[in-house]
Each structure stands twice: as C-alpha cells, then as structure tokens.
C-alpha cells in the first residue's frame, strides 16, 4: 500500500464523517480539518514532517491546534519547536478486504446493539445487565471503510470482545460495499488488528500546541 496524500484524505474524510466535523480540505501542502471542539480547534495533516509542516507550525499562534504526520514521534519532535507537545505513537493501518482471521462466536452473555451517530454506524456490545462492554464505529465513503473509536472497557478486556466488535463492523463494511479499510491504532491496538489481517502503512504521530 503506497502512502500519499490521497490515502490520508480517505482516512481523514471517514474520521470527519464519524465525528461530525467539517470534511478535510487541501491547504499548505497537507490537509486541514476545522474541528471546532473545545479541546481541539483545528488539525493539519501531512504525509511527512518536512518544510510544509514546519511552515504550517510557524504560522500557528493559537492553542489547541493539532499537527499530524505519517512519521514517528521522534521525527516529528525534531521538526517542531519545543512549544509543541508530542503525543504517544499511533499507526495508520490498512486492510484491503474482509479481515483474514475467522470470526468466532459472540462470547456468551453479550448482545449487539446498533445505532447511528453523525455519519457512522455505531456498534456496542452490552453485557447481561445492559452495561456497555465494548464499542466501535465504521464509516463507508466511496468504497473506503474507516474504523474508529474501537474500545473495550476496563473490566471486560481479554475476553475476545475487541475481535468481536471488529468482525461485526467488518460485516457492516462488506454490506456497504467497502473495497479497503483504514484505521489509526494505538500501540496496544496494533497487535489485535495485525492478528485480524491488518498491516501497518506508516506511523502516525501527533503534536499539539497546548493552551497556556
């Protein structure tokens, strides 16, 4: 899988639809999303931590603006002034078709609930008491399925619920005609997704100009 700005735009479009924010637009050699949240004003996304990213950072004066690039956190740190805070490493991941690992049975005692929020299908696994045990969402836009906010709640981990959520979301993606799948994973999540047939395209690192 070749990483370029088009791939990042497909990922970012799905993310924006899932979160109910403005769609990405081209700007300054990268992509820009006007997020408009209390904790995040805007995000700029770049393929590399090169001159375009550094020029963008030099123009930013307001806090709570995020810079993201498909590089490791150390490389992003070297590209930016000390005022920018670097967050934990993430990974842009890709799966070209239905996930390779076979879906198992839903663990006993759990049920699936489906809903819609913004542009995303939202799936929750709930226990017998109706408590949310695991959740995730998927958006399919022009053949690209973007998986987002995959989470297993503390106290429910190591029971196969994360895999169950991913397989259920993958079924929704297949029904919607997805031809590729994208997500951004934490270090912990990466191992799960690799077992399900996903592969890392690139590191994906974040810097934020924090509020004073």
From TrEMBL:
Alphabetized, the UniProt keywords read: Transferase
Gene3D superfamilies attached here?
Answer: 3.40.630.30
Query: What protein am I looking at?
Result: GNAT family N-acetyltransferase
Q: Does the keyword Repeat apply?
A: no
Q: What SUPFAM superfamilies does the entry give?
A: Acyl-CoA N-acyltransferases (Nat) (SSF55729)
**UniProt keyword Ligase, yes or no:** no
The cross-references to Pfam families, in alphabetical order and at most eight, read: Acetyltransf_1
Q: For the N-acetyltransferase domain, which residue ranges apply?
A: 74-212
One MF annotation (Gene Ontology) recorded for this entry = acyltransferase activity, transferring groups other than amino-acyl groups
